[in-house]
Write a structure and sequence with these properties.
Oligomer: single chain
Largest sheet: 7 strands, mixed
Distance between the termini: 39 Å
Length: 126
């Protein structure tokens, strides 16, 4: 399995931007679909965005579509989440995640999370 380390969270004003990074390490780390989930205080963890193992398919929650962009680097070892036009309701701990199985499409219906990152706080002030 892979290990995941996130970075890039912080405090930003409404309308601002942040980019989260998630570096994967471990055997065959580039062969897993990956994604981002978030958990706000008092709420359940929710899907934000995922990307297929090859990087050719991406998926977004309706609440972030058109504002967030997920991508992978060429080696497939790092996943990014570019967040633009941030809103206070985007405030949450963001978790990177990797699929349990290799070579997955990463769609929200098919992904089964095998590894979670430690989480990074994103706070959007109004």
């Amino acid at each position: 399995q892979v290990q995941l380390v996130e970075s890039g969270g912080g405090l930003v004003q409404t309308g601002g931007s942040l980019r989260l990074s998630c570096a994967a390490s471990g055997r065959a780390r580039s062969t897993y679909a990956m994604g981002w989930f978030r958990q706000a205080p008092g709420k359940e963890r929710e899907f934000v965005s995922t990307i297929s193992w090859g990087g050719d398919s991406t998926y977004y929650a309706d609440s972030v579509k058109g504002r967030f962009t997920i991508s992978k680097d060429n080696a497939g070892n790092t996943v990014y989440l570019q967040m633009n036009s941030l809103k206070p309701e985007d405030t949450a701990v963001y978790y990177c995640a990797a699929d349990r199985s290799q070579y997955g499409r990463g769609s929200p219906e098919t992904i089964s999370i095998g590894t979670w990152g430690q989480g990074t706080q994103v706070t959007v002030s109004s």
